């Protein structure tokens, strides 16, 4: 984490604490804090709270001490609000405690149990004795939800259609509702939205520029839906995705396998790849004239993230977004100028 990122987060959390204190003071004077209407029916810090989701709604009657995260990228929201989950589900990257670099310090020396990435081990979850189970980014089936709900109150994805595309704002507000920290969560959202708006204004060249978010794996290439978390961030910055990409990725998985004959979909103002340029799959791509001869590459308009940067980008959480703002957004602006002489740490190597 950069010094700038840490400063941004520290300032944001300090502002959150002040707002939370203000909410308590207002409550003492008889003016209850307003709750986020879709997330909770109670005032800030009060229980019970009711969380609606794809399979109904879940009532939480008291502050949960033992939080089990079965979603793939939800731990950041609880860590940002001062709560360390007792268990975190692994996603990728082999990170200690399944927690990425930008969030490690928020563990405060604790070591949560790491749940397997593959199928949920329900017996393991029972042994954790959770007070609440959260799986907003797990793509839970109704059967999985029913099994988890028999263990502890469980919060699933907001609707059956967006198990992989929950916004960071919704993640933050729902975490705040579950923890009784609505005012702090709202402050996190407000400040981070303001920062994204400010950085977008700093780079007006991104406004209206066309983009795709893509990746490669085992010899195949993929383009992702505008609804996915990483794509949503690109859109928040003012970039746009084509209707054709939206239509092709309008499916349960929210991505489409891209044949070489459709590499034309990659020829945009700035193409964002999840892998680093020296990853084997990207080396193969850059040697393929069907891609290498496209203007998106010859004009240096492709960006190659690599593990840490891609993790920050696809998490797009209240803890990872400062890294994205500091590091990746300037690289997007460098790429979109179409001048191959201007490069960043995420540019392809010279041919």
UniProtKB/TrEMBL annotation:
First and last residue of the signal peptide: 1-30
List localization entries. Answer: Cell envelope
State if Transmembrane helix is listed as a keyword: no
In this record, what's one Pfam family?
Answer: Peripla_BP_2
Q: Which domain of life is it from?
A: Bacteria
* Ranges of residues in domain Fe/B12 periplasmic-binding: 66-336
> Which segments does the entry list as coiled coil?
none
Q: What are the UniProt keywords, alphabetically?
A: Signal, Transport
What's this protein's family per the entry?
Belongs to the bacterial solute-binding protein 8 family.
Q: What is this protein called?
A: Iron-siderophore ABC transporter substrate-binding protein
Show the taxonomic lineage. Answer: Bacteria, Bacillati, Actinomycetota, Actinomycetes, Micrococcales
